[in-house]
Amino acid sequence: MPFxxxxxxxxxxxxxxxxxxxxxxxxxxxxxxxxxxxEIAADVLYVSALSAGLKVLRASPTEASVLVMPYRDFDRVIxxxxxxxxxxxxxxxxxxxxxxxxxxxVAPPLHETLESRLGMSNVQRVVVKSDSPLTTMSVASLLWxxxxxxxxxxxxxxxxxxxxxxxKWLEDNYRPQAEELVAAKSLSVYYTPSLRAGxxxxxxxxRCLAAPLDALEPMxxxxxxxxxxxxxxxxxxxxxxxxxxxxGIRQVKVLFNTDPVTASAYSVFFAAxxxxxxx
Length: 279
Hints:
This protein is an alpha/beta fold. It has helices spanning 5-19, 39-51, 61-68, 87-98, 112-119, 133-143, 150-161, 166-183, 196-206, 238-246, 260-274; strands spanning 29-34, 55-59, 76-80, 103-107, 123-127, 187-191, 209-212, 224-230, 251-256. It has 2 domains: 5-159, Glucose-6-phosphate isomerase like protein, domain 1 (Rossmann fold, 3-Layer(aba) Sandwich), CATH 3.40.50.10490; 163-274, 3-Layer(aba) Sandwich (Rossmann fold), CATH 3.40.50. The protein is built from 11 helices and 9 strands.
């Protein structure tokens, strides 16, 4: 069964919505803060920044406020929020601005009280007006990938320029895995480092377990174990895959043969299209 036309259209609209957002420039030391489901979009940006050679750290709002910002200097702080009442994210953003950090809040429209607090702070606001804000923020995080190695950046830029072809590419290459995923009554998901965003997206929708592949403990109660990996990372996990295979638990592997930066976003797209749920 092909991906639904409605889901493909919703994803393409998110791509268009993301392209219309102002571009965030990243350089130097970067702190990425997120909570309430927005970690998915933040992870795509984290992988992009890390792969470009930036000094980047990700944290929850409370971690950032208590453990990070008082003790380190940052050139840019990016705060992602999804819940309109995410007061923790707003508090972290206003504290960041008070400390003199160049602070950006990326989120759909928030409660008017929170927007007012941001408006009184020296915070750049990127308002995500989209029917699917989480997916739109994830796409935007890919579009904001900073420039790193010249040859690699040129290749990434080419992939990003063709991003509207990705839904068809995913259907051509991963439809059998998507069908098994949808048919499974219960699911556990394990991922290599660059694909955390897709795993979290899947389990936000399916209410399942998502864990790093090196922490794999096969869930006896799960009908299906889904492995998300990239070809650049999978060689480090062969021993774990063999252990899983010997357990007799049914597994399906989704292997992305692309750069880890684009794979991070593509794993989100795969989850959205496979589940027919572009959030």
